[in-house]
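Risk register update: the risk of archive-format incompatibility is retired. Evidence:
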Amino acid sequence: MHAANLTSPRLQRVLALLRDGQPHSTRDIVRQARVMAVNACVAELRHHGAVIDCTARIENGSRRFYYTMTKGPRDE
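Archived output:
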């Protein structure tokens, strides 16, 4: 995998959102961090040592995914 550097503005926006340790839906991350490929951003952050849990919930008949960062990247 080729992960972007942590200085990437895209990853910095996602990190800023996930730093609070609260669950954030894919939709929230897309809107607030202005990224489209949330799963790719999460994979890149994990590559840098972040621990990010993903849980699925059924809401209004649809499966929604929530991401929670429990440990930041090692280079931070």
